[in-house]
Amino acid sequence: MRNKNKEEKILQAAEAYAKEQLGNDVSGHDFWHVKRVVNLALQIAEEEKADTFICHLAALLHDVADGKLNSSEEAGLAKVEHWLLQKELEPADCQEIMAIISHISFKGGQVSNFPLSAEGKIVQDADRLDALGAIGIARAMVYSGAKGRPIYDPNLSPRENMTLEEYRSTEGTAIMHFYEKLLTLKDKMNTETAKKLAENRHAFMESYLEQFYAEWEGKR
Ligand code: ADP
Ligand code: NI
């Protein structure tokens, strides 16, 4: 049996930990991103009748181990595991959280074959949804600005089959990122609930691009 009080305490501690670790990161992983992923994950978990505690905790911690914020992804994961082991978490839950956060990242499109649990699929969907729609566009622009990438260059085409290094490299433009990642995410959603949310966000990005090109040509 789960102990609600204990779970509540762990969630509060994890929220404070994520806030402290992510702070005001400008690479698209600030704490408000985490808050939105938590909200989406909980909403999807309710619909899909999954374990809300696991989804909540994994969503809170999902970016703390990110390779961009740590000396390496391995070091980041070891740090989170160390933190979890200090909490009174069931060993099975600790393992489950580590399995989720080490496998949900996008990594330039390389698909991991790791079989995610239902909760892992939900947190992955929630993280991907936050890269879509109006929020996703804002994040891509902020990320590009932080990396010194221009908005658009009509002479550059999107890159295909990128390695992780190429994906992380600052070459290219913000608009290229729509084709390299954002527009591919709709078809990668795991759950029916996320698929529906993704459709709407995807359509918004397509109409944004249409308007963008029309303005670029001075047609609107
Ligand atoms: P993940 O959370 O899966 O690790 P990333 O770290 O790749 O995702 O991206 C964080 C945010 O920054 C996302 O909203 C993503 O779309 C955006 N982003 C990542 N790479 C780029 C890029 N090369 N150009 C523009 N935006 C990017
Ligand atoms: Ni994330």
Automatic annotation (TrEMBL):
InterPro entries: HD/PDEase_dom, HD_domain. Residues 30-132 form the HD domain. SUPFAM superfamilies: HD-domain/PDEase-like (SSF109604). This is Phosphohydrolase. It comes from Streptococcus oricebi. The lineage of its organism: Bacteria, Bacillati, Bacillota, Bacilli, Lactobacillales.
